[in-house]
Write a structure and sequence with these properties.
The chain is of the alpha+beta class and 171 residues long. The protein has a single domain, classed as Nuclear Transport Factor 2, Chain: A, CATH 3.10.450. It is built from 4 helices and 6 strands. Strands 2-1-6-5-4-3 form a 6-stranded mixed beta sheet. A hairpin with a 6-residue loop joins strand 1 and strand 2. It is globular, with a radius of gyration of 21 Å.
Length: 171
């Protein structure tokens, strides 16, 4: 009887320790991402881009916005210099990882100057700490408004598709 109780106690203790480790890990990732968003809102160019891996990619809301880190730095520099950056406030975030905790992916809902947006990305744990490898920002559209948005975008989408297809044919 005592052995069974001991086994149950040890099992419960291990479960609790594992849950505490998971909670701590999620806190660490949340802190990193929250600080990344604060860095840009506080015009801290160096801190913001130091959190991105050298080979990272930032995908913006416009279909043409797929930037390497270097390209995104060049795009963003004037906004930082004029102290006219963006302030994205996380409202909700989901964090996922493999057991080894070296790779993390996430999605988040953000309060932005564009209204509610969604961000998603991938982080890797490097020698220098966590780094953003890939980030995608998208504007959310309520389902009941999608037909209206499709009509608004129709002409520009057509131009983009033509341009993309022309480029693709040359490959």
């Amino acid at each position: 009887m005592y052995r069974i109780l001991l086994i149950l106690f040890l099992f419960t203790a291990c479960q609790n320790a594992t849950q505490k480790q998971r909670d701590h890990f999620k806190q660490e990732i949340n802190h990193f991402l929250d600080q990344w968003h604060r860095d840009v809102a506080q015009y801290d160019y160096k801190a913001y881009f130091d959190k991105m891996a050298e080979a990272s990619v930032y995908v913006g809301t416009d279909a043409s916005e797929v930037w390497t880190k270097r390209e995104f730095m060049e795009f963003a520099k004037p906004y930082f210099d004029k102290k006219q950056t963006w302030d994205f406030i996380p409202l909700n975030r989901n964090i996922y990882w493999y057991e080894h905790q070296e790779t993390v992916w996430f999605d988040e809902v953000l309060d932005t100057w564009m209204g509610v947006c969604r961000g998603s990305g991938v982080l890797s744990n490097t020698i220098d700490g966590w780094k953003i490898e890939h980030y995608v920002l998208s504007v959310t559209v309520p389902n009941e408004d999608i037909k209206e948005i499709i009509q608004i975008k129709k002409e520009r989408d057509s131009l983009f598709i033509t341009k993309f297809n022309d480029r693709h044919e040359k490959l």
